[in-house]
Design a protein that fits this description.
The structure is a single chain. With 411 residues, this protein is α+β, with helices and mostly antiparallel strands. It contains 13 helices and eight strands. A four-stranded mixed sheet has the order 1-4-5-8. Strand 2 and strand 3 form a beta hairpin. Helix 5 runs antiparallel to helix 7, helix 9 packs antiparallel against helix 10 and helix 10 runs antiparallel to helix 11. The chain is globular and about 70 Å long. 35% of the residues are buried. It binds flavin-adenine dinucleotide. The site of flavin-adenine dinucleotide has 21 residues, from strand 1, helix 12 and helix 13.
């Protein structure tokens, strides 16, 4: 039984598993080519994907950890994972959004009741495109230094300034925006967090060309852009706390969003990709290459074990410091893996283009590995976070921390 009336009933794991299996058997049909991770920046699923997501949300499988009045079932993490595993087993998307959908989780936690009622279902069903309006030319790692301003005028805010490296801005309907609303308090205390409507005259998006020759990034310029008051998340001037929640969600899923090769030329199925590549290139017997492949596999296994430990900690209700290692570990794995691909191909990796798909993949993965080591906070910043918040090391000196932002150099 999966109708709303029965969702709050306590079910055994077996009954829940049978329930979700039966529902999937009755409803799931593989969809046309996936358009990317659900809840990802600027990713637009096809109409078929959206129709499927709507079904998943309505049946209560999308966010089972959430309360029943918000499309959930109030389930424990362990039971929610049963649902995710059953969806994964048949390759169906849409489950586990209470873990992975950064936009919906941030809105659920902080949006005003009116805006929450409007936006949360749209986010869960991927009916709106989203982007992150955080980084600015002078504020990337130190986001507390943002200078884009939002000024209240009656029932709305007027936004002026600019952002950079905004993934998916060209197609987004809303951007999660941090902007300065008070210049006379220290930098962390005068920032507010908004869901800014992107499709309006005051927002101009200009694409940037990336090292991979793609253009997912943009510069975004605001000239008297309007943001309704109801789109403010959390209290005015307290956006720093909202941002910390949103960043934690982003970092926890960043590794999962990492892309694979893009040539589209299939690698040997079933075999570890690096071993298959080395076999194809005739270097599987090379001791140095074997050692490097083993290192990458070792890193991946270690990361999987750490992730399992973190999940076990969470299931027992304790927050896990191991969680903070995931993004950093994934960054190392992606760089190492790309390096080993290049080693395997040797001089052949200098080739490029459709006639050399393996080289194209190696080169793309080498360049794209920076996605995880810079996006969502750099590796260096992640190490600072681990040092200070997990290991309890002394905080990095910050001369402008307690100074009213207006007096900080550069203003
Ligand atoms: C793939 C990708 C997608 C992105 N998408 C978005 C997006 O959608 N929205 C958005 O707002 N931004 C986005 N960004 C921007 C990203 O968040 C920033 O690039 C990142 O936070 C670093 O900021 P910065 O580029 O200004 O570098 P800086 O902050 O100028 O850092 C430069 C260098 O100095 C180091 N550094 C800086 N401060 C310290 C410190 N205190 N201790 C040690 N080292 C330090 C950094 O690690 C880095 O190596 C994206 C970036 C990438 C790569």
């Amino acid at each position: 039984m999966t109708d709303a009336a029965t969702r709050t009933e306590t079910q055994t794991d077996e009954a829940l598993r049978a329930d979700v299996r039966a529902w999937l058997a009755a409803n799931w049909k593989p969809l046309p080519t996936a358009q990317g991770r659900i809840g990802g920046a600027g990713l637009f699923p096809t109409p078929e994907h959206r129709a499927w997501l709507a079904k998943v949300v309505d049946a209560g499988w999308a966010v089972p950890r959430w309360p029943t009045q918000w499309y959930g079932r109030g389930l424990s993490d362990a039971q929610a994972r049963i649902i995710e595993r059953e969806f994964a087993a048949v390759g169906a998307p849409g489950a586990g959004q209470d873990r992975s959908n950064l936009w919906a989780n941030t809105a659920l936690a902080y949006a005003t009741p009116t805006f929450k009622a409007k936006i949360v279902p749209l986010l869960l069903k991927s009916e709106v495109g989203m982007c992150l309006l955080y980084s600015e030319p002078g504020a990337g790692s130190d986001l507390a230094g943002v200078r884009t301003r939002a000024e209240r005028q009656g029932d709305h805010f007027v936004v002026n300034g600019s952002k950079v490296w905004t993934s998916g801005a060209a197609t987004a309907d809303y951007g999660m925006l941090i902007a300065r609303t008070d210049w006379d308090t220290p930098k962390h205390k005068g920032i507010s967090f908004f869901f800014l409507p992107m499709k309006q005259k005051g927002v101009e998006v200009r694409p940037l060309r990336q090292i991979t020759n793609e253009s997912h990034f943009n510069e975004v310029f605001f000239t008297d852009a309007i943001c309704p008051e109801e789109n403010l998340l959390g209290p005015l001037d307290a956006g720093w706390g909202v941002l910390q929640t949103a960043l934690a969600y982003e970092r926890s899923v960043m590794g999962e969003g990492a892309r694979g090769p893009r040539s589209g030329v299939a690698e040997a199925a079933g075999e570890e990709p690096l071993i298959a590549l080395a076999r194809e290139a005739g270097v599987l017997g090379d001791p140095l290459i074997r050692q490097e492949i083993a290192k990458v596999i070792g890193y991946r296994r270690l990361n999987a074990l750490n992730a399992a430990r973190a999940k076990a900690d969470l299931a027992q209700g304790t927050s896990s410091s191991i969680m903070s290692l995931g993004k950093l570990a994934m960054s190392r794995i992606l760089h190492e893996e790309a390096k080993v691909r290049t080693m395997i191909l040797g001089a052949g990796s200098l080739l490029e283009g459709p006639d050399h798909p393996r080289a194209e993949d190696a080169n793309f993965l080498t360049l794209n590995a920076y996605f995880t080591s810079i996006g969502g906070g750099t590796d260096q910043i992640q190490r600072n976070i681990i040092g200070e918040r997990v290991l309890g090391l002394p905080k990095e000196p910050e001369v402008d921390r307690d100074v009213p932002f207006r007096q900080v150099r550069g203003n």
